[in-house]
Design goal:
With 415 residues, the protein is an alpha+beta fold. The chain has 4 domains: 4-131, N Utilization Substance Protein A, Chain:P, domain 4, CATH 3.30.1480.10; 136-203, Beta Barrel (OB fold (Dihydrolipoamide Acetyltransferase, E2P)), CATH 2.40.50; 205-273, GMP Synthetase, Chain A, domain 3 (2-Layer Sandwich), CATH 3.30.300.20; 356-414. Helices cover 37% and strands 26% of the residues. It has 15 helices and 16 strands.
Length: 415
């Protein structure tokens, strides 16, 4: 057997389309040079020739012809008499080239070479995958659902590479079936047991940022810049944008005519509410915009402590806080300020009310703090909310809420 067809002998080659030919040839050369060193002690006088197109391999042995009896290095030299047996026309001082039969290495050595080659190709494929996805971190990819597990989903990209979408990176309302195509952003590339694991995300602010880039040409062209994105996946997101062109309204451009641009993104994010606001360096104005859709009547700022007291009409308080406190939480993340919401009852007839602090001997401090967090700082503001609403918007247990309402109600009943 004068040569060996690599593609037939080493099946792994067929799966290595992503590996460039020069790298592949170098790997094959290294594997067979190792084989030569084991058999002959050195690979210096051997040439491994790989035909990448055909997958053929030839090993040529090169020796200098010397006078009989003058062979000092059998690996590099051959006696004249022995050379003439190969080819009668050879002369002393010439180079003798002989093809080494692969089968001369023995079946066990060839098998070992095949295993080494398969292992090296596997490593190369891993490296190619890591390099490819390291360069795509932050990009949106589309992949097919291959397997759905409790804690994660296994996806395959167009080249059959495995990608992982963990449960923690899925929007709560996400539900996928095998064979479905889904979009996500490449979050990171990890190595587990020396194997690359590509982690995708649908909850990352980057995912929303890239979706906006796709839908809004002005963002892609750099005319509009996304200054900051904060998200509560599946619930609400706030996007602060700024325009570098005075003629372009950044909010209008992002939303589109009758919401045409934002609607597709909202559907992709399972009906996540997206508030697009104009970025400003004026903190007071930024806080006001970040609390959309509520309307503020007054505000007190403490720049040093990054704290803001915001006053709103009673009917605006719940809008500012939002469902499960999401709106105010995102506003705080966007602005970097701690925001406390208070009712502004100016202009309305004064109604007898009691500050919650007055109940500190009967109600624990952490309960009062929790109520203040959702904008309830007086007894009436708590009683105005139903038990169900309080349970939904706070971390309080039903029993605690019932007891709380009883204590507050008793105080008014006395009056």
């Amino acid at each position: 057997m004068a040569s060996i067809n690599l593609i037939e002998a080493f099946q792994d080659f067929k799966e290595a389309e992503n590996i460039d030919r020069p790298t592949m040839m170098k790997v094959v050369e290294d594997v067979f040079k190792t084989l030569l060193r084991k058999k002959y002690g050195s690979d210096e006088n051997f040439d491994v020739i790989v035909n990448a197109e055909k997958g053929d391999l030839e090993i040529m042995r090169r020796r200098t012809i010397v006078e009989d009896g003058n062979v000092n290095d059998p690996l590099a030299e051959i006696a004249y008499t022995d050379a003439k047996k190969v080819e009668p026309d050879y002369e002393v001082g010439e180079e003798l080239y002989e093809e080494v039969e692969i089968l001369d290495f023995g079946r066990r050595a060839i098998l070992a070479a095949k295993q080494t080659l398969a292992s090296r190709i596997g490593d190369l494929k891993k490296n190619v995958l890591v390099k490819k996805y390291n360069e795509r971190i932050g990009e949106i990819v589309s992949a097919e659902v291959y397997q759905v597990w409790k804690k994660e989903i296994l996806l395959l990209d167009e080249e059959g590479s495995e990608l992982i979408l963990p449960k923690s990176e899925q929007i709560p309302q996400d539900y996928f079936k095998k064979g479905e195509n889904i979009r996500a952003v490449v979050k990171k590339v990890e190595l587990k047991n020396n194997s690359p694991v590509i982690i995708l995300s649908r909850t990352s602010p980057l995912f929303l940022s890239k979706l906006l880039e796709i839908e809004v040409p002005e963002i892609f062209d750099g005319l509009i810049v996304i200054k900051k994105i904060v998200r509560e996946p599946g619930e609400r997101a706030k996007v602060a944008v700024e325009s570098y062109d005075d003629r372009i309204d950044p909010v209008g451009a992002c939303v589109g005519m009758k919401g045409s641009r934002i609607h597709g993104i909202v559907r992709e994010l399972k009906n996540e509410n997206i508030d697009v606001i104009n970025w400003t360096n004026n903190v007071q104005l930024l806080i006001q915009r970040s609390l959309t859709p509520s309307k503020i009547t007054n505000m007190e700022l403490d720049g040093e402590k990054l704290h803001a007291n915001v006053y709103l009409k009673p009917d605006q308080v719940s809008l500012a806080i939002g469902r499960k406190g999401v709106n105010i939480k995102l506003a705080q993340e966007l602005t970097g300020y701690t925001i406390d919401v208070f009712r502004d009852n100016e202009g309305e007839p004064e109604e007898f009310d009691i500050d919650l602090e007055e109940f500190s001997d009967e109600i624990e401090g952490w309960v009062i703090d929790e109520l203040k967090r959702i904008g309830c700082d007086t007894a009436r503001s708590v009683l105005d909310l139903t038990s169900d609403e309080l349970e939904r918007r706070t971390d309080l247990e039903k029993e605690t809420i019932d007891e709380l309402r009883r204590v507050l109600k008793e105080e008014f009943d006395k009056g």
